Amino acid sequence: MKNLKLATMGVVLCLAVGGSGAMGQCLYPPSDVYATETWDCSPIEIGWSLVDNALGYRIDRAPVSDPTAVESLGFVSVLPFYDTTATPGVDYLYWVVAQGECGDSEAGGPDTGTIYLPASPQWVQASDNQYCDLIVVSWDTSGGGSNYDLYRSESWDFASALYVGSASGPDFYDYAVAGNVGYVYWAVATSACGSGAPGASDIGYSNFGMSITSDPSDQQAPVGGSASFSVEIRGFASFEWYHDGGQVFDGGNVSGAGTRTLSISPVSSSDAGQYYCVAYGGCGSRESNSATLTIQSDCAADFDSDGTLDFFDYDAFVICFEGGACPSDKTADFDADGTVDFFDYDAFVVAFEAGC
Questions:
Q1: How confident is the model at residue 303 (pLDDT cuts 50, 70, 90)?
Q2: Which letter, b or e, does each residue of 108-145 get, where b requires 16 or more Cβ atoms within 10 Å of its Cβ?
Q3: CA-to-CA separations, 311 to 303, 304, 318, 353, in angstroms, rounded
Q4: With contact defined as beta carbons under 8 Å apart, do 349 and 342 qualify?
Q5: What domains does the chain contain, in order, with CATH numbers?
Q6: Mean of the per-residue pLDDT values for the chain?
Q7: What's the CA gap between 315 and 304, in Å, rounded?
Q8: Cα 42 to Cα 51: distance, rounded to the nearest angstrom
Q9: SS3 at position 158
């Protein structure tokens, strides 16, 4: 008996020539083909609707990236079929072919199935000068990783990064760091399926042996003028400035109170006094030497340079004239003749009585 296949009204028929001459129906393509997408490394499940008169089914697969590279995974008589050979992270197309006495049906499908690798962390944060000889790294864990590999480089190129350790979750403590060096960090999520791609990155710094290398210097300024004090440090720090023992804050005529340079403009008589800076870093704090702001006056009789002519100026001159302490940048040689004598006293009295 010879079998012939005919197509009639969309139905494939198998015509038996000879013998009884009976006509049998061949196979429709399987419908409702599906393939699963899994995040837990379980095999991809392929299912379909059963086809009448089918004796079995062949499962075909090809990468989405190359649909012509079709391979047969095997033959089954029951469903579903589990693909245990799929490579995690690769998207596949799946087809199902019904098989019977008349031969194979057309392929049913395709549908796409994937075993997903853990997703890349969407953010990474590395500490900046918060710790002494240490950088703390944290990251996003929403991508489904069961563990995370940490990589580090001194550039933003992941190709140059080196593995520095792993953790089941944040935080990671990197003690193998040098001060004043910026390190870029990546967290790569891993699971039983493999490793995901590197995602976001961040640069971090470690503090170290911070010290003040240059102290503020004395300043002179007239009322209405400007003055500034600066410090230089080795390492990294935050800054606080103090005036006569009280902390200074930005506002009014003051700016830079949280930086290495404090600026005062316009200067008022109340700004006179001692200024110093405290630098705070992950390795401790350092205090600078004090510097003096002296208010310059165009009024010679304003001997204490506070911008006001009063009895305090007279007292200050008398103390200085009698050999006591003189205000900064002041001398009892009031007439500037190189000698301190009664002429200086008379000159001061004349200037004081004349007013400013």
A1: confident
A2: bbbbebbbbbbbbbeebbbbbbbbbbbbbbbbbbebeb
A3: 10, 10, 11, 11
A4: no
A5: 22-113 (2.60.40.10), 124-207 (2.60.40.10), 211-295 (2.60.40.10), 298-354 (no CATH)
A6: 87
A7: 9
A8: 27
A9: helix
Chain CA centroid to CA 345, Å = 68
pLDDT in tens, 171-212: 999 999 987 789 999 999 999 888 999 989 999 988 776 788
Q: Rounded to whole angstroms, how far apart are CA atoms 195 and 41?
A: 12
Q: What span, in angstroms and rounded, lies between the C-alpha atoms of 7 and 140?
A: 58
Give yes or no for a contact between 98 and 29, defined as CB atoms under 8 angstroms apart: yes
Q: Evaluate the omega torsion of the peptide bond into residue 80 and state whether it is cis, within 30 degrees of 0.
A: yes
Say whether pLDDT at 72 is over 90.
yes
183 vs 164: CA distance, rounded Å: 12
Phi, psi angles (nearest 5°) of residue 318: -60, -45
Q: What is the mean pLDDT of residues 302-316?
A: 86
Of the candidates 85, 59, 91, the one whose C-alpha atom is nearest the C-alpha of residue 73 is: 59
| Torsion from C-alpha of 302, 255, 246, 288, nearest 10 degrees | -100
Q: How many CB atoms lie within 10 A of CB 79?
A: 15
- The pTM for the full model equals 0.51
Q: What are phi and psi of 132, to 5 degrees?
A: -90, 120
Q: Which residue has the tokens 């199902």?
A: 96
Backbone angles phi, psi at 342, to 5 degrees: -65, -20
Query: pLDDT tens digits, residue range 105-157?
Result: 999 999 999 999 998 898 999 998 788 889 999 999 988 888 999 999 999 99
Cα 28 to Cα 106: distance, rounded to the nearest angstrom: 7
Q: What is the rounded CA–CA span in Å between residue 305 and residue 315?
A: 13
